[in-house]
Write a structure and sequence with these properties.
With 287 residues, this protein is an alpha+beta fold. The protein is built from 9 helices and 6 strands; from the N terminus they run E-E-E-H-E-E-H-H-E-H-H-H-H-H-H. The strands form 2 sheets. The chain has a 4-stranded mixed beta sheet with strand order 1-2-4-3. Strands 5-6 form a two-stranded antiparallel sheet.
Length: 287
């Protein structure tokens, strides 16, 4: 499920900003953009974010800046000298303009680096407070999105149930058409006087039994009710169960289509499948 949360706070002339973003994924994939000197605390940060995120591709950015513009940095002198000597040597060998060598070298990665220092407990506690505030906003974003998604799912289930209720009137018509078609075919190929009425009725009953969709209708309706019940359950994770129920709904709808022998019922089945595909798309984004 997608989510976004952002929080910031100032402490001891420093600005702390935390941003949390997520995209849907079947697994938990946490990626952090944090200062180098936070690495020793990353496991604690990873555990807290993982507990909130449950699953998904989650990007976490933590930024700490000095409000006085005194962010420490160092120049890797040995690396700078090496680059300088190499560039100077190449410039002489190739007889090319040296240009602004200093500015060029300073742009090379790792030549200029932020000054690493240990983080005190007080500063870390302040950072974690901002992280939790960002995660709270992250949860609120997800809750709002989830509420809208729930309303959409309920509406699509209602449409499927309404379509299912339109099936029975067409069942009687298809049975009458089947009887007439069989009678017409037998009369044409065997002659009306050569048709065994008892055998004819047995064949009609055989085909009607194969075409019976009562069980499929009952099961589909029960799956729809079960789906709605699961939406009402107060639990944080229900995506897998809803996905399983939607798959069962798909099986019943497909069987309805296979047994339909009716253009009118087929049209209803196609409409059900359309709604079910939209349901599956939404369920894929649910935790």
């Amino acid at each position: 499920m997608t989510g976004f949360g952002r929080a910031s706070q100032s402490i001891d002339e420093k600005s702390i900003s935390v941003e949390v973003r997520s995209l849907n994924s079947k697994f938990t994939d946490l990626r952090f953009k944090i200062p180098t000197n936070f690495k020793e605390r990353e496991q604690e940060l990873r555990r807290i974010v993982s507990d909130h995120a449950e699953r998904g591709k989650v990007d976490v950015s933590v930024e700490v800046k000095s409000l006085l513009g005194e962010d420490g940095f160092t120049i890797n002198e040995a690396l700078f000298r090496k680059y300088f000597q190499e560039i100077q040597s190449l410039a002489v060998d190739l007889d090319i303009d040296k240009g602004d060598v200093v500015q060029t070298i300073l742009r090379i990665p790792n030549v200029v680096a932020s000054e690493e220092r240990e983080i005190g407990d007080e500063e870390w506690n302040a950072i974690m407070a901002v992280v939790r505030a960002a995660l709270d906003q992250f949860d609120q974003f997800r809750f709002a999105e989830g509420s809208a998604m729930e309303n959409d799912l309920r509406e699509r289930i209602r449409i499927i149930v309404d379509l299912l209720k339109k099936v029975p009137p067409f069942e009687i018509e298809r049975m009458d058409r089947l009887r007439q078609r069989l009678r017409q075919n037998l009369d044409e190929f065997l002659g009306k006087e050569n048709v065994d009425e008892n055998r004819f009725e047995q064949e009609v009953l055989f085909y009607l039994e194969k075409m019976d969709i009562t069980e499929e209708k009952v099961r589909l309706e029960q799956h729809c009710l079960f789906f709605l019940e699961q939406l009402d359950v107060e639990t944080k994770v229900k995506g897998r169960k809803l996905s399983f129920i939607s798959q069962e709904m798909g099986r019943e709808i497909n069987t309805l289509g296979a047994k339909a022998y009716s253009a009118d019922i087929q049209r209803l089945v196609v409409a059900m499948k359309d709604e079910l595909e939209k349901i599956k798309e939404q369920v894929a984004n649910i935790l």
